[in-house]
Write a structure and sequence with these properties.
Strand order of the largest sheet: 6-5-4-7-8-11-10
Mean pLDDT: 88
Radius of gyration: 20 Å
Order of helices and strands: EEEHHEHEHEEHEHEHEHHE
Low-confidence stretches: none
Number of helices: 9
Largest sheet: 7 strands, mixed
Strand content: 15-25%
Length: about 325
């Protein structure tokens, strides 16, 4: 373990925030979250070193798994085809089918845009290059490739890299800063639930800016520790994930971080698939209240809670849409 200053502003001043345990993969030990007294970032201190962190992903971390024999469900196939048609009609994505009428497709497109899981699709750029930092097993990267992007991924996990290569994806193992990528080489860079895993989030964002083309887009998806879920569930909030999540952002600290890296924040959207709420309920029922799980329809509750929390800007997740200045 190592002690650290604030990973964003470098301040040595911090105050205790919460003592937590790994309730997801059940690694032993307690971990301490602190809040920076200068910029308010919440971060793990002390934290595992880069050499130590790998062992805390052992024991069932699902994001590194890929089963080549698993067939997509019929509902997923239908949703994928519908997504492809709408992206072709409204965001310029290529398609082999006749383009759908925008007028008749508009209600479906508005419903598509209202679903928070669909926020991540950028407008298409012909011959555009997309980099996914912390790509995991490559599900999103493969989808973007199939939608017409020239894609590249990075991940520090050998298991994740092996899963991606099994999908036929081009992936670099290691930190983004060690990948040796040329400057101004990508139209879009995505960090989907990866920034909170990094030891140097500010350095990562600065490297993202360096490899991005002028006018290029950055999409950053992270948990929101200022959301209602973190306040209600406390240590049982699923998105805490100590010690794999090394930093935790609020809307304010995420905005200040991207601006400190030289990126321009265009908008911040709030998202929850209901997954974090559902898993937090499971953890809370297991750790605190064993009778809670059967008290209500969890699926219905999570779906409705998602809508309300997004409207209140208190969702468990948030997505920052940023650009690199043309200058």
């Amino acid at each position: 373990m190592e002690t650290t200053n604030c990973p964003i502003c470098g301040s040595e001043r911090s105050a205790p925030y919460r003592v937590v345990h790994d309730l997801v993969l059940r690694h032993e030990g307690e971990f301490r979250l602190v809040r920076c007294e200068d910029c308010s970032l919440v971060y793990l201190n002390p934290r595992p070193t880069r050499d130590e962190i790998g062992r805390y992903y052992e024991g069932g971390y699902d994001n590194f798994r890929y089963d080549p024999d698993q067939q997509p469900s019929p509902s997923l196939v239908r949703r994928t085809e519908r997504t492809r048609r709408l992206l072709a009609a409204f965001r310029g994505y290529p398609t082999d089918e006749p383009p759908a009428s925008k007028l008749w497709s508009l209600p479906a497109y508005l419903a598509f845009c209202a679903r928070s899981r669909n926020f991540i699709y950028p407008s298409f750029r012909r011959e555009g290059r997309l980099l996914d930092v912390g790509c995991g097993a490559g599900k999103f990267l493969a989808e973007m490739r199939d939608l017409g992007w020239d894609v590249l991924g990075t991940d520090i996990s050998p298991d994740a890299v092996a899963a991606c290569r099994a999908r036929g994806l081009d992936v670099i193992e290691g930190e983004l800063s060690d990948a040796g990528l040329p400057g101004s080489g990508f139209d879009v860079v995505t960090l989907r639930h990866s920034l909170e895993h990094t030891h140097d989030p500010l350095g990562t964002l600065r490297e993202v800016r360096r490899v991005l083309k002028p006018g290029g887009e950055v999409i950053i998806e992270v948990p929101n520790i200022a959301g209602l879920g973190a306040r209600v569930f406390g240590e049982c909030w699923f998105a805490l994930e100590p010690p794999r999540h090394l930093v935790h952002f609020t809307p304010r600290t995420l905005a200040s971080s991207v601006e400190a890296a030289g990126l321009q924040l265009r908008r911040l959207r709030f998202k929850s698939s209901g997954f974090v709420i559902a898993r937090s309920l499971e953890l809370y029922a297991r750790e605190k209240a064993s009778g809670l799980a059967g008290m209500f329809n969890r699926r219905v509750f999570c779906r409705n809670a998602d809508v309300v929390l997004r409207w209140l800007r208190l969702s468990d997740e948030m997505i920052a849409f940023c650009v690199k200045s043309e200058a």
